[in-house]
Amino acid sequence: MKKIIILISLILSLSLFTACNKDKELEKYSDQFFDTFDTVVDVSVYTENEKEGQKQLELIKNEFERLNKLFDRYNKYDGINNFCNVNENAGLAPVKVSPEAYKLIKDTFTYNKELSNKVDISIGPVVDLWTKYRDLYNEGKTKEEVKALTGSYLPTEEALKALRPLLGMDKIVLNDEESSIYLKEKGMKMDIGAVAKGYATELVAQKAIKEGVKHCVISAGGNVRIIGDFPKNDSGKTAFAIGVRNPDVDENTNGMDSISEVLHLNDTSAVTSGDYQRYFDLDGIRYCHIIDPLTLKPAHDFKSVTIIAKDSGLCDFLSTACFLLPIEEGEKLLKEKNALGIWIDKDSKTYMMEGAQELTDRGQK
């Protein structure tokens, strides 16, 4: 089995096993599953009995698995047209996709136009090139071995420049009547890694709410979505405690040593983009998975950016955009969407927007 190293940037810290709500005891039921959206998904629900708890957990897992197939850009599935099919048909033909997949792309276009063009889903060819080098270095290859295999230690300016004709949101054609997507140039590839996981998490949450889930925390890698408030109990605890990972600790570090901030949240989302999630180090420089569409190179200014807002899909978009923008521009963007941000820069200094600190341990004292 292929070993996948997954770093979860937001760590769920839920220690309460029973709670009371309107004189009825609520119990916590949890599940963890893999192989959706290339991450580990942890889910906790609070219900009156095990039967209802397991039913809610199964609902959430099934919905993640369904959306993973619809949004997958690497694998095809019988009876489904997903982003893998769209990329394979670049320069050839439009591909009709599911309503969920089409709306994901449609909403991303809107965000790209109205909020920030730093999130560009046409960047797939560049992402794949950098991923090729990352995989080689993470397999243990030396610089000389990588150069022997690829011709260079890192993607060259010439190689990156050669990919520019394949980039541009204007080369992605959407047909609302057909719910189809067409990539104009052969060799184009959409990469929806900056938006898909958060968007899917929000869809799962909305489905769960519709089906009666009232108290739940979903942690899908760096995407946390909280449904409802923390159940009332005798401990005095009034909010869910969500840990923001310390980007400077070893990936195997757990517990409080792995956390830089603890957020106290209810009925909202918290999404983190970090340079420690998918990366390689070379000659003292870290090359992360977040690519700037202007330079076509990994971003270096921040170690992590955490966004707090209601909608997990919007948070995912904003966390990537703010990772690629100066803090001042990112803060202005977040204020427009009533979102809060926490930045940890390349020197490990933390900057919090006004209102964010109130949600941390420091603000709770």
From TrEMBL:
Essential cofactor(s): Mg(2+)
Catalytic reactions on record: L-threonyl-[protein] + FAD = FMN-L-threonyl-[protein] + AMP + H(+)
Main localization of the protein described in the UniProt heading: membrane
Topology of the protein relative to the lipid bilayer: Lipid-anchor
EC numbers on record: 2.7.1.180
One Pfam family cited in the UniProt record for this chain: ApbE
Subcellular location: Cell inner membrane
Signal peptide residue numbers: 1-18
Keywords, alphabetical: Cell inner membrane, Cell membrane, FAD, Flavoprotein, Lipoprotein, Magnesium, Membrane, Metal-binding, Signal, Transferase
The keyword Ribonucleoprotein is assigned to this record: no
Family stated for the protein in its record: Belongs to the ApbE family.
Function: Flavin transferase that catalyzes the transfer of the FMN moiety of FAD and its covalent binding to the hydroxyl group of a threonine residue in a target flavoprotein.
Protein name: FAD:protein FMN transferase
Organism: Peptoniphilus koenoeneniae
